[in-house]
Amino acid sequence: MSTLPPCPKCNSEYTYEDGQMLVCPECAHEWSANESAATAGESDKVIKDAVGNTLQDGDTVSVIKDLKVKGSSLVVKVGTKVKNIRLCDGDHDIDCKIDGIGAMKLKSEFVKKV
Ligand SMILES: [Zn+2]
Q1: 3-state DSSP call for residue 96?
Q2: Cα–ligand 1 centroid distance for 29 (angstroms)
Q3: For the segment 53-91, what is each residue's pLDDT rounded down to a tens digit?
């Protein structure tokens, strides 16, 4: 029932924690848990929409509340469909392009998967 990540070198599942470090008993590789999260190509962070659906790159979502576009007078209206989202890191975790507005970032908590 371990939730530790597999060894990044040999993929062994038998990693264990030694203080701040993770240790692989099979190839003796040691690494820090934080480091492995940062260097893994794909982060394990799961981004969910307002109702708990897991979002993925390429999903279509709809906006669940009017959102002001920072630095302009534009508003993304509730119900606006946003196609082909891209997940990213940060406070605003969705990168997208909206018709009539252009590229912008959204918060996953204000969208719902379509
Ligand atoms: Zn290993």
Answers
A1: strand
A2: 5
A3: 999 999 999 999 999 988 889 999 999 999 999 999 888
